[in-house]
Spermidine/putrescine import ATP-binding protein PotA
Amino acid sequence: MMHQTIRSGSPTLSDDRDAHLRLDGLTKRYGDSVAVAALDLAVPKGELVALLGPSGCGKTTTLRMVAGLIKPTDGRIVVASQDITQVPTYRRDMGLVFQSYALFPHMTVAKNVAFGLEMRSLPKPEIERRVKEALAMVRLEALAERKPRELSGGQQQRVALARALVIRPSILLLDEPLSNLDAKLRDEMRNEIRDIQQSLGITAVFVTHDQVEALSMCDKVVVMRGGKLEQMGTPVEVYEHPATPFVASFVGRTNRLEGIAQGDGRVAIGSMAVQVPGRPGGKVEIMIRPHRMKLVDVGSGEDAASEGVNRLAGSLTRVTFVGDLLQYHVDVDGTEIVVEAASDHGRGFRKVGAPVAVLWRVEDTMVFGRGA
Ligand SMILES: Nc1ncnc2c1ncn2[C@@H]1O[C@H](COP(=O)(O)OP(=O)(O)O)[C@@H](O)[C@H]1O
Ligand SMILES: [Mg+2]
């Protein structure tokens, strides 16, 4: 199959009438430059959707337009079938969490969380009850009287989350909320945010440049590039069936080779040839995930191409030990291929410079046309 023909994204208005949040041609221009270009998106009620893409691709601008903090140049924002494009921020009923916690430093945790409710002039007992409830949700009841500076980064971000949720928003918007946390805490907070989002059944949009975060937490992933939607799908769809080479290389690691398709399912790569799924023609790029490849010693019993298995010969240039993985760097005719294998107690080191072969299954080969 040609991967470029698979388009699981581009939601149309007809097939998502029950979307809770819908963006319809949403556009933001700054002078001549386009930050967000006619973005169409439908988020079903209760789903957590990631906006994933490199820095500058328009994620924050999109989120801030949804929140009402930036005025769109064009397009519409629809929530529960109501056009809210012109509705001011404070009436949009959205909870926001940013990368910087943006807490009031002079107020206690409880006061920070109560702020939104006090702005809405709720009765005092109601405020107390809801603040307690929100702090329980993020496991901070015991720290209610502390000031933000007396909290760790993770705790501060949990206060920010409680503050966003306490108003019982219809949509939760999170902009890189975990980027300031260290790796271990980030893992914990991922699960915590996901659990809370699911237990509340709240519709949420999560902005991140981190593919692991997007894949592991979210129901759908929207891959953005240059202000445009590149692909939308479930985490498995965007990882296993990337619509474009950009998605393939941004969502997960890939090896990339250029070749000329022979029209019979074979692709010539320099003096070598490999088999690919389908019958592409012309110039193609093929991509293979490093963990789907296997490194073998030339001349060993395992070193044989067989039906459904591709083989490229090269030489080993580097072995990197990264704890759970070994990464073998192989020079194949001037192109670097990386093969990953479980490190198995550090065993598996090989001599750099040795002739090796790389094997992988034909079905694990992703193929993309390179245009005319
Ligand atoms: N106030 C602004 N004026 C001009 N350009 C802006 C402004 N805000 C953002 N941009 C540009 O819009 C693009 C998208 O920015 P942003 O949405 O912040 O990206 P991301 O959040 O994906 O990193 C970038 O090229 C950025 O430089
Ligand atoms: Mg941003």
Remarks:
- The chain is about 25% helix and 35% strand.
- The first helix runs from residue 59 to 67.
